[in-house]
Amino acid sequence: MKTEAVWERRQDFLTLNPTGEVPVLVEADGTALSGSDAICEFLDEVHPEPGLYGRHSLQRAEVRRLIYWFDRKFNIEVTQNLVSEKIMKRFLGLGEPDSNVIRAGHANMHQHLEYISFLTDRRKWLAGDDMSLADFTAAAHLSCVDYLGDVPWTEHTAAKDWYVRVKSRPCFRTLLEDHIPGAAPAAHYANLDF
Predict the structure, then answer these.
(1) Together in a domain, 70 and 143
(2) Long-range contacts of the stretch 181-184 (C-beta < 8 A, 24+)
(3) Got the DSSP string for 33-52?
(4) Which residue from 102, 114, 189, 186 is spatially nearest to 155, judged by alpha carbons?
(5) What's the pLDDT tens digit per position in 53-67?
(6) Based on the structure, what is the number of domains in the chain?
(7) 87 with 117, same domain?
């Protein structure tokens, strides 16, 4: 795992991915794959057990729908409004956070947590009986916002219970160990049962 300062637009990195965006997966033979969708589908094909997308076509479609929901809708309505305003603006020297944008992110958060609660009241995991990439996608976005302490868990206990299950998975723990330079995580961030 390597950190790439994409705003520096290094030529070596642009050779790997001309869009200048992360993530990029570089295989042992030097082949570079870019874009989280392409990388995840590649990994699912190369390592089919356990599957990231589910076993049946309808479940796979539901997993893809939820990935889209969190990578697009949640990202635009919550992640960008909170993480970009509070962390990225300061980090990139783009000025002070806009309090109206932050308020919108906090307001939008409730709809998404209610939706997670709705899904997990009817299913074991977001897309069905098995944990899938939909769970990891949603949890990754929530982890970024939770790092800031901006998730109102006490108002959404079903969503919190689901997140605790994802957060306690060994594969998720390395994410909880990441820290943003100059910005300490919320006190509960790495606690598996908070």
Answers:
(1) yes
(2) 182/91, 183/87, 183/147, 183/148
(3) EESHHHHHHHHHHHS-SS-S
(4) 114
(5) 988 899 999 999 999
(6) 2
(7) yes
